[in-house]
Design a protein that fits this description.
six-stranded parallel β-sheet, 10 helices, disordered N terminus, Rossmann fold, six-stranded mixed β-sheet
Length: 342
Protein backbone atom coordinates (compact mmCIF):
# COMPACT_ATOMS: atom_id res chain seq x y z
CA UNK A 1 0.00 0.00 0.00
CA UNK A 2 1.48 3.39 -1.05
CA UNK A 3 1.99 6.36 1.26
CA UNK A 4 -0.86 8.39 -0.29
CA UNK A 5 -3.26 5.44 -0.06
CA UNK A 6 -2.31 4.97 3.58
CA UNK A 7 -3.03 8.65 4.26
CA UNK A 8 -6.45 8.29 2.63
CA UNK A 9 -7.48 5.32 4.77
CA UNK A 10 -6.20 6.97 7.94
CA UNK A 11 -8.24 10.08 7.19
CA UNK A 12 -11.31 7.97 6.41
CA UNK A 13 -10.92 6.03 9.64
CA UNK A 14 -10.72 9.27 11.61
CA UNK A 15 -13.97 10.48 10.07
CA UNK A 16 -15.74 7.22 10.85
CA UNK A 17 -14.45 7.30 14.41
CA UNK A 18 -15.65 10.87 14.93
CA UNK A 19 -19.12 9.99 13.65
CA UNK A 20 -19.28 6.98 15.95
CA UNK A 21 -18.52 9.13 18.97
CA UNK A 22 -21.64 11.28 18.56
CA UNK A 23 -23.82 8.61 20.15
CA UNK A 24 -27.58 8.84 19.64
CA UNK A 25 -27.68 12.60 19.21
CA UNK A 26 -29.02 13.59 15.81
CA UNK A 27 -28.82 16.95 14.08
CA UNK A 28 -29.70 18.56 10.80
CA UNK A 29 -26.40 20.46 10.90
CA UNK A 30 -27.66 23.61 12.56
CA UNK A 31 -25.04 23.46 15.33
CA UNK A 32 -23.44 20.06 15.61
CA UNK A 33 -20.64 21.35 17.84
CA UNK A 34 -22.93 22.84 20.48
CA UNK A 35 -21.26 23.50 23.83
CA UNK A 36 -22.57 23.36 27.40
CA UNK A 37 -24.56 26.46 28.39
CA UNK A 38 -24.25 27.92 30.97
CA UNK A 39 -20.54 27.27 31.50
CA UNK A 40 -20.81 26.70 35.25
CA UNK A 41 -23.29 25.96 38.05
CA UNK A 42 -26.21 28.35 38.40
CA UNK A 43 -25.92 30.80 41.26
CA UNK A 44 -29.29 31.02 42.98
CA UNK A 45 -32.58 29.22 42.31
CA UNK A 46 -33.21 27.59 38.96
CA UNK A 47 -35.94 29.27 36.91
CA UNK A 48 -37.94 27.06 34.54
CA UNK A 49 -40.88 27.93 32.27
CA UNK A 50 -43.17 25.61 30.31
CA UNK A 51 -45.22 26.42 27.21
CA UNK A 52 -47.94 23.99 26.11
CA UNK A 53 -50.23 24.00 23.06
CA UNK A 54 -53.33 23.29 25.16
CA UNK A 55 -54.54 23.43 28.74
CA UNK A 56 -52.59 21.44 31.32
CA UNK A 57 -55.97 19.98 32.34
CA UNK A 58 -56.28 18.07 29.04
CA UNK A 59 -55.49 14.73 30.74
CA UNK A 60 -53.00 14.06 27.98
CA UNK A 61 -50.14 15.80 26.16
CA UNK A 62 -50.03 19.08 28.07
CA UNK A 63 -50.88 17.48 31.40
CA UNK A 64 -47.88 15.14 31.24
CA UNK A 65 -45.52 18.07 30.64
CA UNK A 66 -46.94 19.94 33.60
CA UNK A 67 -46.32 16.91 35.80
CA UNK A 68 -42.73 17.02 34.59
CA UNK A 69 -42.53 20.72 35.48
CA UNK A 70 -43.88 20.03 38.96
CA UNK A 71 -41.29 17.28 39.40
CA UNK A 72 -38.54 19.76 38.50
CA UNK A 73 -39.79 22.11 41.21
CA UNK A 74 -39.99 19.32 43.78
CA UNK A 75 -36.53 17.91 42.98
CA UNK A 76 -34.56 21.12 42.44
CA UNK A 77 -36.48 23.83 44.29
CA UNK A 78 -36.89 25.68 40.99
CA UNK A 79 -39.10 28.68 40.44
CA UNK A 80 -41.57 27.60 37.76
CA UNK A 81 -44.10 29.19 35.43
CA UNK A 82 -46.36 27.74 32.76
CA UNK A 83 -48.54 29.17 30.02
CA UNK A 84 -50.65 28.00 27.09
CA UNK A 85 -49.23 29.22 23.77
CA UNK A 86 -51.11 27.77 20.83
CA UNK A 87 -50.33 30.53 18.33
CA UNK A 88 -46.84 31.13 16.90
CA UNK A 89 -46.59 34.84 17.77
CA UNK A 90 -47.90 34.22 21.27
CA UNK A 91 -45.28 31.51 21.80
CA UNK A 92 -42.47 33.71 20.52
CA UNK A 93 -43.53 36.63 22.72
CA UNK A 94 -43.65 34.43 25.81
CA UNK A 95 -40.31 32.78 25.08
CA UNK A 96 -38.69 36.18 24.59
CA UNK A 97 -40.28 37.42 27.82
CA UNK A 98 -38.93 34.45 29.79
CA UNK A 99 -35.49 35.08 28.30
CA UNK A 100 -35.66 38.72 29.38
CA UNK A 101 -36.67 37.63 32.89
CA UNK A 102 -33.56 35.48 33.17
CA UNK A 103 -35.16 32.03 33.05
CA UNK A 104 -32.55 29.31 32.78
CA UNK A 105 -34.76 26.75 30.99
CA UNK A 106 -37.75 27.32 28.72
CA UNK A 107 -39.51 24.12 27.63
CA UNK A 108 -41.72 24.32 24.56
CA UNK A 109 -43.81 21.16 24.68
CA UNK A 110 -44.12 20.21 21.04
CA UNK A 111 -42.58 20.16 17.58
CA UNK A 112 -43.86 23.66 16.82
CA UNK A 113 -41.65 25.30 19.46
CA UNK A 114 -38.33 24.10 18.02
CA UNK A 115 -38.05 26.77 15.32
CA UNK A 116 -39.05 29.48 17.82
CA UNK A 117 -36.15 28.42 20.03
CA UNK A 118 -33.74 28.73 17.10
CA UNK A 119 -35.11 32.18 16.22
CA UNK A 120 -35.03 33.56 19.76
CA UNK A 121 -32.24 31.58 21.41
CA UNK A 122 -29.41 33.58 19.88
CA UNK A 123 -30.67 36.68 21.72
CA UNK A 124 -30.58 34.94 25.12
CA UNK A 125 -27.44 32.78 25.25
CA UNK A 126 -27.81 32.10 28.99
CA UNK A 127 -31.26 30.54 28.54
CA UNK A 128 -31.71 26.96 27.34
CA UNK A 129 -34.65 26.56 24.95
CA UNK A 130 -35.76 22.92 24.87
CA UNK A 131 -38.52 21.55 22.63
CA UNK A 132 -40.04 18.11 23.14
CA UNK A 133 -39.64 17.26 19.48
CA UNK A 134 -37.88 18.77 16.49
CA UNK A 135 -34.60 18.51 14.62
CA UNK A 136 -32.78 21.83 14.97
CA UNK A 137 -30.20 22.59 17.64
CA UNK A 138 -27.88 25.42 18.64
CA UNK A 139 -25.52 25.91 21.60
CA UNK A 140 -28.50 26.79 23.82
CA UNK A 141 -31.30 25.09 21.85
CA UNK A 142 -31.97 21.39 22.30
CA UNK A 143 -34.60 18.77 21.48
CA UNK A 144 -35.98 15.99 23.62
CA UNK A 145 -37.90 13.37 21.65
CA UNK A 146 -40.14 10.89 23.41
CA UNK A 147 -40.29 7.64 21.42
CA UNK A 148 -44.05 7.33 21.93
CA UNK A 149 -44.15 5.40 18.67
CA UNK A 150 -43.01 2.33 20.62
CA UNK A 151 -46.14 2.24 22.79
CA UNK A 152 -48.32 3.15 19.80
CA UNK A 153 -46.94 0.09 17.99
CA UNK A 154 -48.03 -2.16 20.86
CA UNK A 155 -51.53 -0.68 20.94
CA UNK A 156 -51.80 -1.04 17.16
CA UNK A 157 -51.07 -4.73 17.58
CA UNK A 158 -53.70 -5.00 20.34
CA UNK A 159 -56.30 -3.26 18.16
CA UNK A 160 -55.60 -5.54 15.19
CA UNK A 161 -55.71 -8.65 17.37
CA UNK A 162 -59.01 -7.75 19.04
CA UNK A 163 -60.85 -6.08 16.14
CA UNK A 164 -63.88 -8.01 14.94
CA UNK A 165 -64.65 -5.71 12.01
CA UNK A 166 -61.15 -5.70 10.55
CA UNK A 167 -61.05 -1.88 10.66
CA UNK A 168 -59.45 0.44 13.21
CA UNK A 169 -59.07 4.23 13.18
CA UNK A 170 -56.71 7.02 14.16
CA UNK A 171 -58.03 10.53 14.86
CA UNK A 172 -55.50 13.34 15.00
CA UNK A 173 -55.61 17.07 15.62
CA UNK A 174 -53.18 19.14 13.52
CA UNK A 175 -51.42 17.17 10.79
CA UNK A 176 -47.84 17.69 11.98
CA UNK A 177 -44.89 15.28 11.65
CA UNK A 178 -44.78 14.39 15.35
CA UNK A 179 -48.40 13.18 15.34
CA UNK A 180 -48.18 11.51 11.93
CA UNK A 181 -45.12 9.60 13.13
CA UNK A 182 -47.02 8.04 16.03
CA UNK A 183 -49.82 7.06 13.66
CA UNK A 184 -47.27 5.40 11.36
CA UNK A 185 -46.16 3.27 14.31
CA UNK A 186 -49.72 2.35 15.33
CA UNK A 187 -50.40 1.25 11.75
CA UNK A 188 -47.12 -0.70 11.66
CA UNK A 189 -48.08 -2.61 14.81
CA UNK A 190 -51.56 -3.31 13.47
CA UNK A 191 -50.44 -4.55 10.06
CA UNK A 192 -47.57 -6.65 11.40
CA UNK A 193 -50.17 -8.40 13.56
CA UNK A 194 -52.88 -8.68 10.91
CA UNK A 195 -51.79 -7.85 7.37
CA UNK A 196 -55.43 -7.57 6.28
CA UNK A 197 -56.39 -4.96 8.88
CA UNK A 198 -57.78 -1.70 7.50
CA UNK A 199 -56.39 1.40 9.23
CA UNK A 200 -58.20 4.73 8.81
CA UNK A 201 -56.35 8.01 9.41
CA UNK A 202 -58.04 11.40 9.91
CA UNK A 203 -56.87 14.83 11.08
CA UNK A 204 -59.26 17.48 12.36
CA UNK A 205 -56.74 20.34 12.26
CA UNK A 206 -57.47 21.32 15.87
CA UNK A 207 -56.20 20.41 19.33
CA UNK A 208 -59.32 21.59 21.14
CA UNK A 209 -62.33 21.24 18.83
CA UNK A 210 -64.26 18.54 20.69
CA UNK A 211 -67.18 18.64 18.25
CA UNK A 212 -65.01 18.09 15.19
CA UNK A 213 -63.13 15.24 16.88
CA UNK A 214 -66.42 13.58 17.76
CA UNK A 215 -67.77 13.99 14.23
CA UNK A 216 -64.65 12.51 12.64
CA UNK A 217 -64.70 9.60 15.07
CA UNK A 218 -68.36 8.86 14.29
CA UNK A 219 -67.51 8.95 10.59
CA UNK A 220 -64.72 6.42 11.14
CA UNK A 221 -67.07 4.17 13.12
CA UNK A 222 -69.58 4.40 10.27
CA UNK A 223 -66.81 3.03 8.04
CA UNK A 224 -66.49 0.00 10.32
CA UNK A 225 -63.86 1.01 12.89
CA UNK A 226 -64.32 -0.81 16.19
CA UNK A 227 -61.13 0.48 17.88
CA UNK A 228 -60.03 4.12 17.81
CA UNK A 229 -56.84 5.81 18.93
CA UNK A 230 -56.39 9.57 19.04
CA UNK A 231 -53.76 12.28 19.06
CA UNK A 232 -56.16 15.15 19.66
CA UNK A 233 -55.03 16.68 22.98
CA UNK A 234 -57.98 18.40 24.71
CA UNK A 235 -60.33 17.36 21.88
CA UNK A 236 -59.89 13.71 22.89
CA UNK A 237 -63.11 14.00 24.87
CA UNK A 238 -64.98 14.12 21.56
CA UNK A 239 -63.34 10.85 20.51
CA UNK A 240 -64.33 9.21 23.77
CA UNK A 241 -67.91 10.49 23.55
CA UNK A 242 -68.33 9.05 20.07
CA UNK A 243 -66.92 5.69 21.14
CA UNK A 244 -69.21 5.61 24.16
CA UNK A 245 -72.28 6.35 22.05
CA UNK A 246 -71.45 3.57 19.59
CA UNK A 247 -70.24 1.06 22.17
CA UNK A 248 -66.67 0.59 20.94
CA UNK A 249 -63.24 0.83 22.57
CA UNK A 250 -60.73 3.67 22.43
CA UNK A 251 -57.08 4.09 23.37
CA UNK A 252 -55.64 7.02 25.30
CA UNK A 253 -52.35 8.69 24.42
CA UNK A 254 -49.54 10.58 26.13
CA UNK A 255 -51.02 10.14 29.63
CA UNK A 256 -52.99 7.31 31.23
CA UNK A 257 -56.47 8.42 30.18
CA UNK A 258 -58.46 5.62 31.75
CA UNK A 259 -59.79 8.01 34.39
CA UNK A 260 -61.01 10.41 31.68
CA UNK A 261 -63.24 7.71 30.18
CA UNK A 262 -63.08 4.57 32.34
CA UNK A 263 -65.83 2.81 30.39
CA UNK A 264 -64.20 3.44 26.99
CA UNK A 265 -60.39 3.67 27.23
CA UNK A 266 -58.98 0.14 27.09
CA UNK A 267 -55.32 1.17 27.40
CA UNK A 268 -53.07 4.18 26.92
CA UNK A 269 -49.72 4.89 25.28
CA UNK A 270 -47.94 6.85 28.00
CA UNK A 271 -45.05 9.30 28.23
CA UNK A 272 -43.34 9.38 31.63
CA UNK A 273 -41.77 12.84 31.53
CA UNK A 274 -40.88 13.41 35.17
CA UNK A 275 -37.48 11.68 35.45
CA UNK A 276 -36.30 12.97 32.06
CA UNK A 277 -37.34 16.57 32.77
CA UNK A 278 -35.67 16.45 36.17
CA UNK A 279 -32.45 15.05 34.73
CA UNK A 280 -32.25 17.82 32.12
CA UNK A 281 -33.04 20.51 34.71
CA UNK A 282 -30.36 19.24 37.06
CA UNK A 283 -27.77 19.22 34.28
CA UNK A 284 -28.58 22.86 33.55
CA UNK A 285 -28.43 23.67 37.26
CA UNK A 286 -25.00 22.04 37.47
CA UNK A 287 -23.77 23.69 34.28
CA UNK A 288 -23.20 20.42 32.43
CA UNK A 289 -26.03 20.54 29.89
CA UNK A 290 -25.02 19.66 26.32
CA UNK A 291 -27.49 20.64 23.63
CA UNK A 292 -28.47 18.01 21.10
CA UNK A 293 -31.34 15.75 20.10
CA UNK A 294 -32.04 13.08 22.69
CA UNK A 295 -34.41 10.20 21.99
CA UNK A 296 -35.87 8.45 25.05
CA UNK A 297 -38.10 5.39 24.97
CA UNK A 298 -39.09 2.17 26.67
CA UNK A 299 -35.53 1.21 27.58
CA UNK A 300 -35.26 4.51 29.48
CA UNK A 301 -38.59 3.88 31.29
CA UNK A 302 -39.85 7.05 29.57
CA UNK A 303 -42.47 5.26 27.43
CA UNK A 304 -45.01 2.62 28.43
CA UNK A 305 -48.44 1.25 27.66
CA UNK A 306 -50.92 1.05 30.53
CA UNK A 307 -54.07 -1.07 30.74
CA UNK A 308 -57.28 0.32 32.19
CA UNK A 309 -57.79 -2.00 35.19
CA UNK A 310 -61.56 -1.64 34.89
CA UNK A 311 -61.60 -2.99 31.33
CA UNK A 312 -58.60 -5.33 31.50
CA UNK A 313 -60.81 -8.39 32.33
CA UNK A 314 -62.30 -7.99 28.82
CA UNK A 315 -58.88 -8.48 27.21
CA UNK A 316 -58.04 -12.12 26.32
CA UNK A 317 -54.99 -13.52 28.10
CA UNK A 318 -53.18 -14.17 24.82
CA UNK A 319 -53.54 -10.48 23.88
CA UNK A 320 -52.13 -9.37 27.24
CA UNK A 321 -49.19 -11.74 26.78
CA UNK A 322 -48.68 -10.60 23.17
CA UNK A 323 -48.45 -6.96 24.27
CA UNK A 324 -45.97 -7.84 27.01
CA UNK A 325 -43.80 -9.82 24.57
CA UNK A 326 -43.84 -7.06 21.96
CA UNK A 327 -42.81 -4.45 24.52
CA UNK A 328 -39.91 -6.63 25.68
CA UNK A 329 -38.74 -7.13 22.10
CA UNK A 330 -38.89 -3.38 21.53
CA UNK A 331 -36.80 -2.72 24.65
CA UNK A 332 -34.21 -5.24 23.53
CA UNK A 333 -34.07 -3.82 20.00
CA UNK A 334 -35.47 -6.95 18.38
CA UNK A 335 -38.40 -4.94 16.99
CA UNK A 336 -37.55 -1.64 15.33
CA UNK A 337 -40.51 0.72 15.49
CA UNK A 338 -40.80 3.22 12.68
CA UNK A 339 -40.42 6.92 13.41
CA UNK A 340 -40.09 9.95 11.20
CA UNK A 341 -37.08 12.22 11.38
CA UNK A 342 -38.15 15.84 11.57
Amino acid sequence: MGRETMKYFCALFAIILSIGCTGGTQSNGTAQDAKPTPAGPIDGPLKVALLTPSSISDSGWSALAYRGLQAIAAETGAEIKNAVAAQAQEAKDLMRSYGQQGFHLVIGHGYEYNQHGIDIGKDFPKTIFLSTSGSQIAPNVGCLRFYLEQAMYVLGAVAAKMSKSGTVAMIGGPEVPSIASTFDAFEQGAKETNRNIRVLRTFTGSNDDVGKAKAQTLAAIDQGADFVIHQANAAAQGVFEACRERGIMAFGTNSDQSAAAPDVVLASAVIVAEPVFVRVAKSIQEGSYQSGIELVGMKDDAIAYVWNPQLLPQVPDDVVQMARTLAQKIREGEIKVTKREF
